[in-house]
Each structure stands twice: as C-alpha cells, then as structure tokens.
C-alpha cells in the first residue's frame, strides 16, 4: 500500500452527550454506529481538527474504520491517502489487511482495558489490606513497622491493628500461615472479624476464643483447607499517675517483650494454641503494667526467624538489641529494629516482618534550678 498514508488512533469519550463529542457531531454518529462517514467532507473537517491530518489543497480522501472493543466502539483508525478513491473502496488484499489491523487494534485495546481494571482492583485490594495508620490516644504512645516478604505487593500475612478509645485502646498483632496476596486476604479476614467481635466482647481473654470460632466457621462455609493464625491481642488503659495497664491474650505467638525505662528487658509469660486450628483451643492471658517510659513490644516470627548468612536473628539477639532503645519513642524503636533485622538478612529472602510498640509516655523532665 504505497503513497502517503497516515494512520492515527484516537480515543474519544464513550458517551455521545459529552461536550467533546458535541463539537464533532458527525464523528459522534460514526462512533455510535449510526453513520459510515466515508467520503463525508464534514467528517473530514472534524477529523482534521482532532487528528492533525490536514488534507492537501486538492483534498486527501479519508477512510474511517471504527475499532470495536468488547462491543463498544472506543477508537477509530483513520486512513488518509491521495490515491484512496473518493468512495473509499480498496483492493481486496488491502481491505483484508486493513480489517486485520483494525481487529488487532480492537483486541489490543480490550486487553489494555482489562489490564487497567485488574490493576485498579489490585491497587484497591492492596490499599484495603495495607498496614493502617496508628491513632493518637491520650496517655499511650504507639509505634509500628511493617515489611512484607514480597515488598512489591506491600501486603502480606503479618498484620497489626490499633483502635483508639477514650479510656481504653485495643490492639492486635498477628501472622497467618502463607505469604503473598492469599495470606493478605486471610489477614484482612482476621482483622475484620476482630473489629466486629470487639462490639460484643472487649475482654481479650474472652475475645480470642470468639475469634478462633469465627475463623473456623469462615473456613467451613468456604470449603477451604484449614488456615491458622498466631496473634497477640489486648487493650491498653492509661491511668492518671502516668502508668498504662495492658491486658493481653495470646494464641501460638512469640511472647511480648517489655523494655523498662532503665534498659531492663522482660518477656511476658503468656502463651496459647494456634488460632483457627481446633475448636477447643486454649489461650493464655496476662496483665502488664507499664511505668512512664516503659515499652511493650509485639513482633511477628519474621523478626526472630530472619536468617542471614549464618544463623537466625533469634529471640536472644532481639532482647539484647532492645536496651539501646531504652527511652526512645516507640516509632523510633520499631524503625531501628526493622533496620537491624534488614541488616542481619544481608539481602537474603525473609518472611513478613511486623512490629508494634506500646509505650507509657515518659514523665516530662524538670528544668534544673539555677543558683543565685
């Protein structure tokens, strides 16, 4: 197909009533399938304005080919050639070639639209499952860090959640089996169930068995394989004297660590069975009082099971790292621990990593008295 020929694809709005198409009524008619447009000088003028395909002084015939994608015309292929007959007919071979090109253009546009919809769906899903913002609550300071195993997804099987309250705030940190988007969906199910069940029961020791039952029932209704989780949930109650009382319940999760303001580290003796494993699972409970400046750290097994070139990071190394963070804000503590774990990994693959720190605010320091 020799001569001077240009092909340009435009994607006008779908709705014929939009202001853009009101300015080009003949093009709107072609898009709607109400007119062919071949050889119409009015359509040629509109296409010239939209595509920049300016006819020669003698006029360049235009051939307009709507490109259907999934039943909706979303584009046009415009063919301009001085050798194009005024009536728009082409040789049979050229008609076949043009038809194949238009069909492939439609397939490509349909695939692009499907990809765009899937990308949007994935972005919405990621946003709904991403780590939440921490609230500001009187008498309690919060800090958190999260690093998924597949960092490009931004979500994974580890999760945390904090809900602020006037006198008592609730929190949750856990880990579901698996990685990637499947684990993230399950973690979202756990978080949603926790939010709903908190409306019925706010005591951690009684809330965890209800959550266990809810997970088992959800799996049964979907005919899925058992998917268990480990977690620590609780609430924080600040007192007028600056202390914060934590009520904790645990199911199959590493024990929380308490970092005292003076640098001492204590493991909270609380343990329990996996959540979502069996109906009659038993879970541990504990109560901890944080003095001003004390911090309680919840963490997922991705921290202690982080494996570098030689060994796991381990609970002992985690406990030995904490004293250098004594007195630091909880957000700084979590960020420092995350960087220590990343450095330990030294580029190796890792599981999801989640950290949540709860701190009783340090007492304000008194200014030194100046001697007269």
TrEMBL record:
Annotated segments matching region Disordered: 1-22
Ranges where the Cyclic nucleotide-binding domain occurs: 284-326
Signal peptide residues on this chain, from the entry's feature table: none
InterPro entries noted in UniProt: Bact_Sigma-Reg, cNMP-bd_dom, PPM-type-like_dom_sf, PPM-type_phosphatase-like_dom
Pfam family, one: SpoIIE
UniProt entry keywords in alphabetical sequence: Hydrolase
Biased composition (Basic residues): 1-12
The keyword Hydrolase is assigned to this record: yes
Keyword Nucleotide-binding: no
Protein's name according to its UniProt entry: Cyclic nucleotide-binding domain-containing protein
Organism annotation: Actinomycetospora chlora
């Amino acid at each position: 197909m020799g001569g001077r020929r240009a092909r340009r694809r435009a994607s006008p709005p779908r709705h014929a009533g939009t202001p853009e198409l009101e300015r080009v009524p003949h093009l709107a008619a072609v898009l709607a399938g109400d007119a062919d447009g071949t050889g119409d000088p009015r359509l040629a003028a509109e296409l010239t304005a939209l595509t920049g395909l300016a006819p020669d002084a003698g006029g360049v015939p235009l051939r307009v080919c709507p490109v259907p994608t999934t039943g909706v015309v979303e584009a046009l292929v415009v063919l301009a050639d001085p050798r194009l007959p005024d009536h728009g007919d082409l040789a049979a071979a050229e008609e076949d070639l043009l038809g194949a090109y238009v069909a492939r253009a439609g397939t490509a546009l349909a695939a692009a639209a499907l990809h765009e919809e899937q990308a949007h769906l994935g972005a919405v899903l990621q946003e709904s499952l991403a780590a939440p913002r921490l609230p500001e609550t009187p008498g309690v300071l919060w800090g958190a860090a999260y690093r998924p195993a597949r960092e490009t997804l931004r979500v994974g099987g580890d999760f945390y959640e904090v809900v602020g309250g006037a006198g008592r705030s609730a929190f949750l940190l856990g880990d579901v089996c698996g990685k990637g988007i499947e684990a993230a969906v399950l973690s979202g199910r756990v978080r949603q169930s926790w939010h709903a069940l908190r409306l019925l029961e706010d005591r951690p020791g009684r809330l965890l068995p209800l959550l266990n039952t809810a997970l088992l029932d959800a799996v049964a209704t979907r005919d899925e394989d058992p998917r268990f989780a480990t977690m620590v949930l609780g609430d924080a109650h600040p007192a007028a004297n600056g202390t914060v009382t934590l009520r904790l319940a645990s199911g199959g999760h590493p024990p929380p660590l308490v970092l005292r303001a003076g640098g001492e580290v204590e493991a909270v003796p609380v343990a329990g069975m996996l959540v979502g494993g069996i109906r009659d699972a038993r879970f541990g409970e504990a109560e901890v009082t944080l003095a001003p400046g004390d911090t309680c750290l919840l963490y997922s097994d991705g921290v202690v099971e982080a494996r570098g070139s030689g060994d796991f990071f381990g609970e002992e190394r985690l406990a030995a790292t904490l004293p250098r963070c004594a007195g630091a804000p909880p957000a700084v503590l979590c960020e420092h621990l995350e960087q220590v774990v990343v450095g330990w990994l030294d580029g190796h693959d890792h599981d999801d990593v989640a950290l949540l720190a709860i701190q009783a605010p340090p007492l304000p320091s008194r200014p030194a008295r100046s001697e007269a």
